[in-house]
Amino acid sequence: MKTIDATTLKNHLDQGDVTLVDVREPAEHSGEKIAGSTLVSLSNFDPKQVPNDPDKLTVLYCRTGNRSAQAMQKLSTTGANNIVHLDGGLVAWKEQGYPTQVNKNAPISLMRQVQIVAGSLVVTGTVLGAFVSPWFLILSGFVGSGLVFAGVTNTCALGMLLAKMPWNQKV
């Protein structure tokens, strides 16, 4: 799988010979992005939506490089070439001190939203279990089991559900 480092990407962006594609979710793209990037989120990834300029290098990026690697695999099945992904993603870009566009009015991150919802459900289940009926403890156990499953499988159903909420669809 072809990768590009942040410094090489910066040089390409300065020369204007690169098409930059962000594969994160709309809320993430809205909150912070590399200037000039186009959003094609991995959750709704359609290779036909990726800008295709044969004279330019297409660079995919996400927060750490995991999702952009997955997007690149999907693109490779279509026969697309001249495509790489940013090694280390936006984190590596920022570590090099390169600028990003930050929107302070964007929704809070999906991870924080998941923490708020899961934590609220656990507290609610525990309080109702202690004062109303012990059957409400099932709610806390269900959420805890879901968090374990999310950690083991590296998938988060709650995060995917929250990503589809209207406030997270604003770009």
Explain this structure.
This protein has 2 domains: 3-102, Oxidized Rhodanese, domain 1 (3-Layer(aba) Sandwich), CATH 3.40.250; 110-164. The chain has helices at residues 6-15, 26-31, 66-76, 89-95, 110-131, 137-153, 157-163; strands at 3-4, 18-22, 32-33, 38-39, 57-61, 83-86, 101-102. The longest helix is centred in the C-terminal third of the chain and has 22 residues, at 110-131. The chain has a 5-stranded parallel beta sheet. Strands 3-7 form a two-stranded antiparallel sheet. By secondary structure, it is an alpha/beta fold. Strand 5 (57-61), helix 3 (66-76) and strand 6 (83-86) form a beta-alpha-beta unit. It is built from 7 helices and 7 strands, in the order βαβαβββαβαβααα. The protein is 47% helix and 13% strand. The relative contact order is 0.16. Residues 14-102 form the Rhodanese domain. This is Rhodanese-like domain-containing protein. Keywords: Membrane, Transmembrane, Transmembrane helix. It comes from Euhalothece natronophila Z-M001. It holds the Pfam family Rhodanese.
What's this model, at a glance?
This protein is an alpha/beta fold. The chain is built from 7 helices and 7 strands; from the N terminus they run βαβαβββαβαβααα. The chain has 2 domains: 3-102, Rhodanese-like domain (Oxidized Rhodanese, domain 1); 110-164.
